[in-house]
Amino acid sequence: MNENTAKTVSKFLSLVLRHSPEKIGLKLDENGWADVEELILKCSQKGNKLDKVLLDYVVENNDKKRFAYNEDETKIRASQGHSISVELNLAETEPSEYLYHGTVGKFMENIQKEGLKKMSRQHVHLSKDKETAIKVGSRRGVPQILTVRSGAMHRDGFKFYLSENNVWLTDEVPAKYIEFK
Ligand code: HQG
After folding, report:
1. How far apart are CA 47 and CA 63, in angstroms?
2. 154, 108 in Cβ contact below 8 A?
3. 3-class secondary-structure state, position 82
4. Which ligand 1 atom is at minimum distance from the Cα of 102?
5. Most CB contacts within 10 A, which of 2, 17, 27, 46?
6. Whose CA is nearest to atom 2 of ligand 1?
7. Which sign does the torsion angle of CA 40, 63, 95, 118 carry?
8. Ligand 1 neighbourhood includes 110 CB (under 6 angstroms)
9. How far is the CA of 140 from the centre of ligand 1 (A)?
10. Looking at this predicted complex, what is its ipTM?
11. What pLDDT is stored for residue 42 in this prediction?
């Protein structure tokens, strides 16, 4: 499989399964699932050639395992990262004492004031290790890594969820739980 083709498909799937299904006239259910046959048909009709072999390859080999099938592989969804409102039905999970968030310098002043906000997504995204957070921050420039006192947040009643592809999700991180250094 050509890696560039797989990457192009992954980007397009992120667009339609997380943000804009209407771009190809696709419907997601309330849990974010798309019908696999409909997805393949509608992607192909819009000039993004897709078949089940290619979709299988992307689901299996995607670097962050961004997409997942349901049990009988008739449906597919993005495991996290949505801007449209979907109910992923993730179980609440107790986080480790610290989680990490990769961002960039230009956002720091605001984050110091108001903490981490969801911005355009459905959750604040946190990583279990600094290496992953560095990669997340690097998408936008020189990464700045924030340490989140997730254990303390959890004890104070904040809820955490772990996506199927191991991204930690929460609704907000007030500034008092962030170590800036
Ligand atoms: C920042 C990728 C100002 C925040 C990654 C981030 C992740 C604030 C940006 C996933 C702020 C939002 C999500 C505040 C947060 N003031 N800026 N109060 N609170 N920010 O893309 O975490 O490759 O929505 O630091 O790996 O960067 O797409 O969030 O820089 O898991 O699968 O606002 O996207 O995954 O940006 O990335 P995003 P994110 P995929």
Report:
1. 24
2. no
3. coil
4. 25
5. 17
6. 136
7. negative
8. yes
9. 9
10. 0.97
11. 96
